[in-house]
Amino acid sequence: MDTDSLARAAAAAMWADDRATAAMGMTLDHVTHGAATMSMSVRDDMVNGHNICHGGFIFALADSAFAFACNSHNRISVASGARIEFIRPAQLGDHLSAVATQIHQGRRTGVYDVSVTNSDGGVVAVFRGNSATIGGELVTLDEQGEQQDA
């Protein structure tokens, strides 16, 4: 199995149990080895008292894209830290896209950057996540490197 096929299989396994991401209306648009793109539309229940998207939802979108990117190696990984810089507000009805890219992936730790853009392509936020590999795999491969049936 090539690395991008493995990334897609790992993402499918993660997606099957990711109720939080689905509940926020996020979609996994693309995943490859070390990268992922997710999107979400800003709904009425995501707008804060300033009538803009609550930053927590923007963070959650970036964090989810980061999660799919750092798990694309089929090694179970979690966040060990993250930070976000908000550049401009997201508005009700905006369609946000988060593109996560691998900066470094070692045996146990990784660094990933995520850019969140709005419907017009303007940068809403930039996010940097640090991952920690905790052991185990999302999909099981046989001796030939092909996915085993569950």
From TrEMBL:
Gene3D superfamilies linked to this entry: Hotdog Thioesterase
Membrane-crossing residue ranges in chain numbering: none
Gene: paaD
SUPFAM superfamilies, sorted: Thioesterase/thiol ester dehydrase-isomerase
All copies of domain Thioesterase, residue ranges: 50-125
GO MF annotation, one: acyl-CoA hydrolase activity
Protein family according to the UniProt entry: Belongs to the thioesterase PaaI family.
InterPro entries noted in UniProt: Acyl-CoA_thioesterase_PaaI, HotDog_dom_sf, PaaD, PAAI_dom, Thioestr_dom
Alphabetical keyword list: Hydrolase
Protein species of origin: Luminiphilus syltensis NOR5-1B
Superkingdom of origin organism: Bacteria
UniProt protein name: Phenylacetic acid degradation protein PaaD
